[in-house]
Amino acid sequence: MGDATLKHSTEVHRDFISQVPEYHRVRSLSIAQPDNVAVGTSLAEFWAGIAIEEESESAIKIGIAIHDGTYSVDFAVHRLCLEEDARKDKDSEWVAEHIIAQLDSYRKERVCKILGAGITVDLHRKSPNLCSQLWAELDIVPFVIESNPILPTKQGRERRKALLVDEIADSAARKCLALYAPTKLPRLSIDYQNQVEVDMAGMIHLATIDDYKRSVREPTWRAVQKYIKDVVDRKLRIVFFSATPQGGGVALMRHALVRFLRLHDVDVEWFVPKPRPDVFRVTKNNHNILQGVVPPDVRSTDTELAKIKEWILDNAERYWMGESGPLRAPEDGGADVIIIDDPQMPELIPIAKKFAPNRPVIFRCHIEVRDDLILEEGSAAQHVWQFLWNSIKHADVFLSHPVRSFVPNDVRKEALGWLPATTDWLDGLNKTMADWDLQYYLHVLRQTCQAQCLPQLAYPARGYFTQIARFDPSKGIPDVIKSYARFRELMKDEPKRNVHQLVICGHGSVDDPDGSLIYDQTMNLIHESFPDLAEDIVVVRLGPSDQILNAIMSLSTVALQLSTREGFEVKVSEALHKGKPIIATRAGGIPLQVEHEKSGFLVERGDHEAVAQYLYSLVTDYDLYETMSEYARSHVSDEVHTVGNALSWLYLASSMAGGKSLKPNERWINDLARETAGEPYDDDEPRLPRHLST
After folding, report:
1. In this structure, how many other beta carbons lie within 10 angstroms of the beta carbon of residue 108?
2. Sheet harboring 112-120: ordered strands across?
3. What is the pLDDT of residues 70-91, one digit of tens each?
4. Does the residue 202 lie in any domain?
5. Residue 103 covered by a domain
6. What domain of life is recorded for the organism (predicted)?
7. SS3 111
C-alpha cells in the first residue's frame, strides 16, 4: 500500500494487533463530548519505542513498540520505500510523517495517551525533526536513546548480536520508561555538583533551532545569532544560580533558556543548592516581608537570617568551590560570567568576587521590593533588605523587573538595568495542543477534582474563567472570588447553563510553604461567604504537569490576574499569546503587558465591581471579545519569549566577560542588546512600553 502525500510506499510486515474493547469505543465519544466523561475511569497511558533498520538509501524498516509501564503490549514493523521523485528531492520528512501518522492513529483507535517515546540515535539522525514533531503534534515527550547491540559473552569478550528492529524498539521503550517518575512525568535530573541537567542532560529533544526561529520576528533572531557567535567563539562559560530546579517562574525560565542555548552549543550551566525546608520557610517570609503581604508582627530574626548564610556557604563549599567549580576563577576552570538569579542566594556574590574580583557577577531580583517599607526605620522589610544588600552591593549589575518602585535607593543607577520575566512559546505551558490532548488533560483535571472531592468543570456545556497562579498571599485570590460573585449577580436572570464557571489553579514549588495555608483560606472563604457558588468554583492545586495548565488556559474564555502585589507575572503574556482577553490589576509589571481596552482591561486592586462589569461585557458582546482576542494574540513582544530572554543574557555575557565594564544606567537590557547588534526596534514592532518602567 502507498500514500502519495508521503512520497513513499509501505509494506506492513507486522501491524499492531491489540484489540479495542467495545466499551472503549463507546468511551471514545467522551473525547469529543467531554461533558459525558465517566470521571472514575482512566484513559490507558502508554510509552513507545521507535527504531529503524536501514536496508538502503531509499528503504528502511521501522519498528514501533508500545509499553504499558509493566510490559510491552504491542508492536508493529513497517518497511518503507522512498519513491524516485522524493529521492531526487532529498525529502527528509517521510520517516517522521509515517511515524506521526501511525502513533496518531493508534491513540485514537485505542483511546489512549502516549506519554513518552524512546527514539534511537540512528532514527534521530535519519529524521532530525521527528522529536520536535512528536512533541508539537502528539504531545509525546521524545527521548533520544542509545541502543547498544554489543553484548558480553560468558568469556568476557564482546560479540555483536543482530537484534531485530522490533527488539531495538522495545528496548528503547523500556529505557524511556525508566526515565519517568511515579508521577508519570520525566524525572528531574540533578548531577553531583547540584547542576540541573535540563531535559535529562539533553536526552529530551523538544524543539529545533528552526522551531525557535519561526517563533520570533526576524530582527530578534538576527540579533541573538550575533551574540551566540561571539559567546561560542570566545568559549565563554556562563553560570546561573537559583534556589529551586522546579516550580515557579525562575525555574521555568532557566529550563527554557538552557534548552535554547545548548541547541547553539553555548556553554551554559545552572546550579541549585540542596533544599532545606527550614530555610525555605525563612526565605518565603523574607519574600512576603519585602512585598508587604504579611502582618506587621512577622519578622525574620538574625538567627533565621544566619541560617540562610550558613546554607549557601555550605553548598558553595561542598559543590561549587572545588576543582573547576563554577565559583573558581576563570583561569582555574570557573565561570566567566556568574548570574545570581534569586534573592535567596546573594551570599554567593562576595564568595565569587573573592575568587575572581574582576569577573562579572550579575544579580537579578525577580520580586517586588517595597521601597517605602525599606525606608521605614526599624521595619521588618528594612531588616531583611539590609541583610541582603550586604551581599548584593558587590554585584556589577543589578537587574530588576521594569518597575522603578521595585528598586531600593541603595542600588546605584549606573548599575541598574531592566529585564522582565519571560516564558517559552514552545514548552508544555504554551505550545498549541490538538483537541485530543486538550481533552485528555481536562479528563485528568476532572479525575483530580473527583479525588479531592471538588466540584466538576462542566466544559464544554458551560464556559469558564480562570486565574492560574500559585496559592500565594499576593495573588489576590479572595478578590477573584468576590469579583466572580458580583458577576454572578449580574447574570442572575440567565439560565445556569449560560453562566460561566470559575477555575483557580496552579502549581506549587519546593521553596513555597504558604500554598496549603492560602488554599485552606480560599476554600473557607467560598464555603462561608458564597456557599451558593461553591459548585461553580473549582479551586485545585495541581501537580507539576505544565500541559494541564496549558489546557485550562487554552479552553478558558477570559483569564484573570488580580494580584495585590506582583513582580512581573508573565502568565499575563501567556494568556494574551493564546488570544485570551485578560482582566488584571495595576500591580507590578502587569500594566506593561496589557493594553487597556485593546488586549484586556486593567483595574485597581480590590475593584470587584469593575472586574464583574468587564467579565459581563466580554461574555455578552461577541464582537468586543473577538476584536480583543485577535489583538491580544498578535501584539505580544518577543521580549517575553525565551529567544528575547537569551538575547539579553548573551548581550550581558558578551559585553562583560573578561573584566569589561558595563553600566546599564536604567536602560532596558533588550534595547541595549538590539542597538549594539545593529537591530534597533522599528516603530511598528511590538514591545513592552518603556515609559511605564520608571
Report:
1. 12
2. 2-3, 8-14, 72-82, 59-67, 44-54, 112-120, 141-145
3. 999 999 999 988 776 655 555 5
4. no
5. yes
6. Eukaryota
7. coil
Average the pLDDT over 410-436 and give the result. 96
SS3 letters for 669-684? HHHHHHHHCCCCCCCC
Q: Choose one of 149, 183, 217: the last residue of a domain.
A: 183
Q: What is the pTM of this model?
A: 0.92
Q: Are residues 93 and 238 in the same domain?
A: no
Same structural domain, 355 and 445: no
On whether both 173 and 242 belong to a single domain, the answer is no
Residues spanned by the domain of 232: 209-424+642-676
Same domain as 381, residue 312: yes
All cell numbers assigned to 518: 492560602
Work out the pLDDT band at 36, boundaries 50, 70, 90.
Answer: very low
Q: How many residues does the structure list for the chain?
A: 694
* Contact residues for 41 (Cβ-Cβ < 8 A; gap 6+): 27
pLDDT of residue 389: 97
What is d(CA 267, CA 228) in angstroms, rounded to the nearest whole number?
Answer: 10
Instruction: State what percent of residues in the chain have pLDDT above 70.
Output: 90
What confidence tier does 149 reach under pLDDT thresholds 50, 70, 90? low
Instruction: Give the DSSP letter string of 445-475.
Output: HHHHHHHTT-PPP-TTSS-EEEEE--S-TTS
Checking if the pLDDT of 25 tops 90, the result is no
- Cα–Cα distance measured from residue 217 to residue 197, given in angstroms and rounded to the nearest whole number: 29
> Does residue 238 share a domain with residue 224?
yes
Q: Are residues 387 and 263 in the same domain?
A: yes
DSSP 424: -
Total number of domains in the chain: 3
Residue 473 lies in a domain: yes
